[in-house]
TrEMBL record:
This is UPF0235 protein FAP39_04875. Belongs to the UPF0235 family. HAMAP family: UPF0235. It comes from Shimia litoralis. GO terms for cellular component: cytoplasm. SMART domains: DUF167. Gene3D superfamilies: YggU-like. Pfam families: DUF167. NCBIfam families: DUF167 family protein. It comes from the Bacteria.
Amino acid sequence: MHPIVPLPRFALCHACCRDRENQPHHKERCVPEDLRHLAKTGQTIAVRVTPKASRNMIKVEDGMVRVYVTEVPENGKATRAVQKLLAKALGVAKSRVALVKGQVSRDKVFVVTD
């Protein structure tokens, strides 16, 4: 089993949203840039998913990655949305982010592959 690494706390806005007074908060672009250090082959990432959220977003709370997606939890739509958003935050292709555990659960474990 791969070790699950605790994550640091960080600001949640994308570069386009840093100046909150002048820029609107974008739904699709609100992903943290600080997850790029986890983009190592074999790295596992445990996430807690909230489907049907008001916007797509990733938060790190007390070392746990929380992923909010607007998709409904039907036929794997929310899981695919989480995979896409997580890959974007990691800076890798979505084909490199594989689901290891939690196909139909809110608690999921992803691994970064080759």
